[in-house]
TrEMBL record, chains A, B:
Gene3D superfamilies: Nucleoside Triphosphate Pyrophosphohydrolase (3.90.79.10), Winged helix-like DNA-binding domain superfamily/Winged helix DNA-binding domain (1.10.10.10). It comes from the Bacteria. This is NUDIX domain-containing protein. Residues 7-149 form the Nudix hydrolase domain. The keyword Hydrolase applies. The lineage of its organism: Bacteria, Bacillati, Actinomycetota, Actinomycetes, Streptosporangiales. InterPro entries: NUDIX_hydrolase-like_dom_sf (IPR015797), NUDIX_hydrolase_CS (IPR020084), NUDIX_hydrolase_dom (IPR000086), WH-like_DNA-bd_sf (IPR036388), WH_DNA-bd_sf (IPR036390), WHD_NrtR (IPR054105). Keywords: Hydrolase. CDD domains: NUDIX_NadM_like.
Length: 239, 239
DNA sequence: GGAATAGTGTCTGTGAGACAGTATAGG
DNA sequence: CCTATACTGTCTCACAGACACTATTCC
């Protein structure tokens, strides 16, 4: 890049990172994977997993790599999408760092492996992570987490990604449970079933049933190919 | 940033830019503002307006500045939102450049002023800009433009931003025209009116009427405070 | 049988698409 | 008068919320 190509105003290069908001449903709660930072800045503080983007590495590729390194989860097993870029000056005390955040949704996963740099990773209920406005989180991760939560809630309305939270095969009740936990409100089981089954290829029947623990055995389904949910499944009390 | 802070794999810093997809409705078509590049790389080629992010400048702030510099439009007069980050290695031949794209929607604007570096800016129908898969566009701007188009079409369904395309005060027909042009399909005038007026505070009546050119004068409205449109105004034939 | 969970049916209100009909302007 | 555009009303069908009822399992 030659000098003539640079603009008049001061321009400095930046470090580029990816941060991951990894959601799952555990213990009747929406949980997010957080790590304890092993070094400065924000050493000992809680943060989203993430790291630097390699020289010849795409953004999504970097996100998949970080996901693997932090959790041992293969990104092919879950839904991954970009949330957006965050680049407020001063968001990282080391200098100009622009991060691209990714949202990952997956079924209940094993306890995460220790990270590459021995950072402790653990699942935390989102509600708890946002306690006190999320001020205990490093960087601007509270902002990113709030954006991710809002995005996930919206996505449940207009797409079929709720099924990404379920381990196949799953029951309609388990799928409904995902909605109830993410939205924080109960849904009518009867109407939910009608809606989901009416939307062709949201879920596909396997023909199998659960070995019931209590009550009548439930039919088991797999994810269908349909991605967009129309008409949408709206949460009550939106404005 | 000290050495110990860097990861094992090679990491280089990157240049950060913002690119703008500025949409408006003109001459019965959705149009996008494109510039002719005055310098390498891609000299003489068509591209989205954009530029480097300043050292102490936020991403959105940079987008607003570029918007002003390229078009003379005050960003307060239109809707601005982030589309996402684009960082595929090799997307810019000068080296690692990560761009954050913004989507701007505005009412019909004057012909753009010449850019700061004498690049010629002009409105182009989106359909034409995407001719031949948009291969004539510089960088990966065809990809960004397609993403922006899809985002704008979606936004019309679930939000009230269509009104951002209208100069106040506007008629219901003008608002409907925006939908028809962006979606590329005709809408029933009667049902559209009912829907828009039923959604409280999507538009607010001014009490005035058009000085009619032909036919009965139409009532004039301003934008209401409502942002989310529920129930949504769905386009036909979605899947 | 009773408890628990799965699944079906039905009633009612609302909203969308289709489209006929009325209102108000210019010519 | 006619034409053009704005606006109103109405019919029908599909769907959502509410909720009663039936089915199948374990105890």
């Amino acid at each position: 890049m030659d000098h003539a190509d640079r603009p008049d105003r001061p321009v400095t290069s930046a470090w580029v990172t990816v941060d991951l908001v990894i959601f799952t449903v555990r213990d009747d709660a929406l949980q997010v994977l957080l790590v304890e930072r092993g070094k400065e800045p924000f050493q000992g503080r809680t943060a989203l997993p993430g790291g630097y983007v390699g020289t010849d590495e795409g953004l999504e590729q970097a996100a998949r790599r970080e996901l693997w390194e932090e959790t041992g989860v293969d990104s092919h097993d879950l839904h991954l999408e970009q949330l957006g870029g965050y680049g407020t000056p001063g968001r990282d005390p080391r200098g100009r760092v622009v991060t691209v955040a990714y949202l990952a949704l997956g079924p209940e996963m094993p306890e995460p492996v220790a990270g590459t740099d021995a950072r402790r990773a653990h699942w935390t209920p989102v509600e708890k992570a946002l306690d006190d406005e999320g001020r205990h989180l490093a960087f601007d991760h509270a902002v990113i987490l709030r954006d991710a939560l809002e995005r996930a809630r919206k996505q449940l309305e207009y797409t079929t990604i709720a099924s990404a939270f379920c381990t196949e095969p799953f029951t309609i009740s388990e799928l409904r449970h995902v909605y109830e936990v993410v939205w924080g409100q109960p849904l009518d089981p009867s109407n939910f079933r009608r809606k989901v089954l009416k939307a062709e290829r949201f879920v596909v029947a396997t023909g199998q049933r659960t070995a019931s623990v209590a009550g009548r055995p439930a039919a088991l389904y797999r994810r269908g190919e349909k991605k967009l949910l129309v008409p949408a499944l709206l949460r009550a009390g939106e404005e």
